[in-house]
Design a protein that fits this description.
It is built from six helices and no strands. It is an all-alpha fold. Helix 4 runs antiparallel to helix 5.
């Protein structure tokens, strides 16, 4: 892990040094008050759970399947490899940053405020969790009964998403714009 950190810093130093130099030595003509404060834009835990359970494509969420696997991997945390534990921990940290559970006011004055919306961390959480799922550290997905469950789960999620896509009033016919 230390070698990876040193290699990452070494490879990205030519990116971060000019940015740091610019931040220190130049006065940029930007607004004093940012348009968004990352600490004010997070979801509450209840909103997150509702968005995840409905799995609505128009709402901010990590998705139902990654959420189920997060719970599954947390329950089996002691049986996971060290690398998988690190990935799950990083995903949980990004997930916590996206909620209003803890105060992340300290991020308002940093480069992280350029993210503007904490729910953009969900893409990192989803990426990490799907990577952990694809590694299949517990060899859970290779069992025959799980293949049937996978097909059923994908079918249910697909049908639910199609239903939610057409059941909501977000579809506007073209005739509406001609008025």
């Amino acid at each position: 892990l230390i070698k990876a950190t040193v290699a990452t810093i070494g490879l990205t130093i030519f990116y971060f040094v000019p940015i740091g130099e610019q931040l220190i030595f130049q006065q940029l003509r930007v607004r004093n008050a940012p348009v968004f404060n990352i600490s004010e834009e997070g979801l509450s835990l209840v909103e997150f759970v509702i968005n995840t359970l409905t799995n609505n494509p128009y709402e901010v969420t990590i998705g139902l399947i990654p959420a189920v696997f997060i719970i599954f991997y947390i329950a089996k945390f002691s049986k996971l490899s060290k690398f998988t534990k690190q990935l799950i921990s990083i995903a949980l940290i990004f997930w916590l940053f996206s909620l209003k559970l803890l105060s992340i006011d300290f991020l308002d004055k940093t480069l992280f405020n350029n993210i503007q919306f904490p729910w953009r961390f969900y893409s990192l959480v989803t990426l990490l969790i799907t990577f952990v799922i694809s590694m299949d550290d517990l060899e859970w997905l290779t069992k025959k009964r799980v293949h049937i469950l996978n097909v059923l789960t994908i079918g249910v999620v697909l049908v639910t998403n199609i239903f939610l896509l057409f059941a909501t009033n977000r579809y506007i016919p073209y005739e509406y714009f001609n008025e």
